[in-house]
Design brief:
Layout (H helix, E strand, L loop, with lengths): L1 H19 L5 H15 L4 E6 L8 E6 L7 H4 L8 H7 L7 E5 L1 H8 L10 E9 L2 E9 L8 H45 L7 H13 L3 E7 L4 E8 L2 E3 L3 E3 L6 H8 L3 E3 L18 E9 L2 E10 L10 H61 L5 H28 L8 H11 L3 E7 L6 H22 L3 E8 L4 E8 L15 H12 L3 E5 L6 E8 H12 L8
Parallel strand pairs: 13-14
Antiparallel strand pairs: 1-2, 1-5, 3-4, 4-5, 6-7, 6-12, 7-8, 7-9, 10-11, 11-12, 14-15, 15-17, 16-17
Helix pairs in contact: 1-2, 1-6, 2-6, 6-7, 6-9, 9-10, 11-12, 12-13
Length: 559
């Protein structure tokens, strides 16, 4: 008799093992194995619970031949955790096949007369495991059976191990399949991002491409300017919001953690995150904050969120870091492109300045000289002619002055003597008293010097037009991290910075774009009755590396 039981066990295990390897569909596998188990044994009823240790509740993933008492209310009794086997499993007290468990669900149906139990009162239960991983419970029952033999429990233990191994295999397969699909979508997103030619449009386009490709409810981009975070773009419910909004880093929740620690931060099941609602991000129950990294520096955070729990649990860290890194690579590529375009524009402006000086200016000067000579020769002979010649002289002098001003703007004379002297001279030309100061700056890369010149020029223009004062303070210095900093300050009437959010002037936008094109940032601090400070920060590292690449040298710029 023992020999016959052993042979039947081996036959059952063999048939179940063969069936388990026929599909990668989890639902089909669980239903097929349960049907096969009942076919090769004397058990008449079975069901499988899948249980996640980190999530409340359980899922009845498969069942076969359940009595009517357990099917009422669309299988309502098979949901929830109100049974001994699930409770003991979660308490880590159910580690192997267990004999004689009176079914609490059956007892409930009998007490409330929900239907026939077909003679089932007890069931055996065994945890589904593969190594250290736990997946749920296998339960079997038989009408009138209250006790399961040691041989039956051993067989169930072996079958449960096979099922656990199959579950593990299918989940690994599904994870690999999902990763392949995610990376395929990532490839499409990268191509779309690389197709954007305007760095100012990149955040807006990127959040839309990412949200559409992966079906994520909310995608937002925050950039860090060294002092505070600014929301550059928000994708929500299929629409993109372009308004530029700022917030303090300490009040940005997960975004603050990702920025501070330069690491991925996730939330799977918060009650309702709302720390970012001040900038328009909808409340969320799951989210991921992905740092945007350029070498060892974090320049911002990509924030994805959802009103559903565990929305992003299936995403592995490598994929999420890749998403952020490819976005920053797109930013860097566009900055290099903008940098080269700016160099080309600088060369063209310089060429135009030289041509204007060598041709038009000389001709206007000659015209003025000839008019003066003619006026001297014809003095007193014809008043009308003399008046006309005087007008020609006056107009040529005005044209000469305007032309020199234009040349100055194209290629400021004196910039070769240093940035601060050129800015000071420009400010004095605006009838401003300019105080300048430099701390440790010996030489700047040409691109940074040109950007600072244009930013300083616009800032001084604003002092002249809006501050109500005739004094400006300019400071050029170096930060500890090697970035160059230009500050233009006035002690005028000031303005309310908050009111400028989302509606920046052309001059403010131009200054910011010049700094960001070189990988830097620009901040404007002010307030009613307070000093206004325009502060541009541009890291030398990226500019020097690019200059070294173009020149074929080390790009040795000193600060």
């Amino acid at each position: 008799m023992p020999r016959e039981i052993r042979e039947s066990e081996l036959a059952a295990l063999k048939e179940i093992a063969e069936m388990l390897n026929t599909t990668n569909d989890m639902d089909q596998m669980l239903n097929d194995v349960l049907a096969k188990l009942l076919e090769v044994t004397d058990f008449t009823t079975g069901w499988i619970f899948l249980i996640d240790d980190d999530v409340p509740g359980n899922t009845c993933a498969a069942h076969h031949n359940l009595p009517p008492a357990l099917t009422v209310g669309n299988y309502a009794l098979m949901c929830g955790e109100d049974c001994w086997c699930v409770e003991r499993y979660r308490q880590l007290k159910l580690t192997h096949a267990v004999n004689i468990i009176e079914c609490k669900r059956i007892n409930y149906s009998v007490t409330h007369q929900l239907g026939s139990t077909e003679g089932i009162t007890h069931h055996a239960t065994v945890p589904l495991k593969a190594g250290k991983d736990r997946f749920g419970l296998l339960n079997v029952a038989q009408a009138g059976k209250e006790q399961f033999s040691e041989e039956e429990l051993a067989l169930l233990q072996a079958i449960a191990l096979q099922i656990g191994t199959a579950i593990n295999r299918i989940r690994l397969y599904q994870a690999q399949e999902q990763n392949a699909m995610l990376y395929a979508k990532l490839g499409d997103v990268i191509q779309q991002i690389n197709g954007v030619q305007d760095i100012n449009q990149l955040p807006i386009k990127a959040v839309q491409y990412i949200g559409d490709a992966f079906g994520w409810p909310n995608v937002s981009l925050f950039m860090f300017d060294g002092q505070q975070l600014s929301l550059r773009a928000l994708y929500s419910n299929g629409k993109v919001t372009k308004e530029w909004q700022s917030l303090a880093t300490e009040s940005a929740g997960l975004v603050s953690l990702a920025l501070r620690d330069n690491r991925l931060v996730t939330e799977s099941s918060c009650i309702e995150g709302g720390l970012l609602s001040s900038v328009g991000i909808p409340p969320y129950r799951s989210a991921a904050a992905i740092p945007l990294r350029v070498r060892s520096r974090t320049i911002g955070v990509m924030f994805i969120s959802s009103p559903d729990q565990q929305q992003f649990d299936g995403l592995n860290e490598d994929f999420m870091y890749s998403l952020g890194d490819h976005f920053t690579l797109g930013v860097e590529n566009l900055r290099v492109y903008e940098h080269r375009s700016e160099l080309a524009r600088m060369e063209e402006r310089n060429r135009m300045a030289r041509d204007l000086h060598d041709s038009v200016v000389q001709k206007v000067f000659s015209l003025s000289f000839l008019a003066k000579g003619a006026e001297t020769i014809l003095a007193g002979k014809d008043p009308v002619v003399q008046k006309s010649l005087l007008e020609i002289q006056q107009l040529s002098q005005e044209a000469l002055k305007e032309m020199r001003t234009l040349i100055w703007q194209l290629h400021p004379a004196g910039l070769e003597n240093g940035l601060l002297p050129a800015l000071k001279q420009y400010g004095q030309g605006l009838n401003l008293t300019v105080y300048d100061r430099t701390d440790g700056v010996k030489e700047l890369p040409r691109a940074i010097e040109e950007a600072f010149w244009r930013i300083g020029q616009e800032a001084l223009n604003n002092v002249r037009k809006h501050s109500g004062t005739e004094t400006a303070y300019i400071r050029l210095n170096k930060q500890q991290d090697g970035a160059a900093v230009l500050e233009v300050k006035d002690e005028g009437a000031g303005f309310q910075v908050d009111r400028k959010k989302g509606r920046q002037t052309m001059g403010m936008r131009s200054m910011r774009e010049r700094a960001e094109t070189l990988g830097g940032s620009l901040t404007i601090t002010s307030g009613r009755g307070k000093a206004t400070i325009v502060r541009a920060i541009i890291p030398l590292e990226s500019v020097q590396a690019h200059c070294a690449e173009e020149k074929g040298s080390s790009g040795d710029y000193l600060l």
